[in-house]
């Protein structure tokens, strides 16, 4: 079944960006949302260079200059997918507006879902996960870098504390509402 949240109906495919600090649940929410909606799932972490992963694994945060080629690589891939009318859910930190802005220009109707949670909850989640290159020691730098997207019209905050099915229900409702508004303005 093609996604219940299908924003289809006009010329641009849909890009849902699930954003937030490391450990907020971006990959988990994005994978489940992509499966539920029938969208392609992408994890921005897969686009990091070996050098960037090594740097972060050593506990050293990336600079904005180091993030630029990473974001451009993601955008290039998204433009290729948009040309094929592929709907996508992207797990992407998007900590600063300058990181989010390029995604708005890749040929998609974009909706950001900001996974919003407190440091203690996220730290506990990071301590419990295994096999991820991002150490919990970088959580403070993630929060320090975060520019909350509270004033950006295409961003919806999702509280990370409810169970995943509740978060998915809210995410799908947001996507459907965004599509409805988009269709009204194009008709």
Tell me briefly what this model is.
By secondary structure, the chain is α/β, with parallel strands linked by helices. It has helices at 26-37, 50-57, 64-83, 97-100, 119-128, 139-145, 164-186; strands at 14-19, 40-43, 88-91, 109-116, 155-159.
Layout of strands and helices, then pairs:
Blueprint: E1 14-19, H1 26-37, E2 40-43, H2 50-57, H3 64-83, E3 88-91, H4 97-100, E4 109-116, H5 119-128, H6 139-145, E5 155-159, H7 164-186
Parallel strand pairs: 1-3, 1-4, 2-3, 4-5
CATH class: Alpha Beta
Please, how many helices?
A: 7
Q: Spans of 5+ residues with little confidence (pLDDT < 50)?
A: 1-9
Structural class: alpha/beta
**What is the radius of gyration computed over CA atoms, rounded to a whole number of angstroms?**
16 Å
Share in β-strands: 5-15%
Classify the helix fraction into a percent range: 40-55%
Overall outline: globular
Q: According to CATH, what is the topology?
A: Rossmann fold
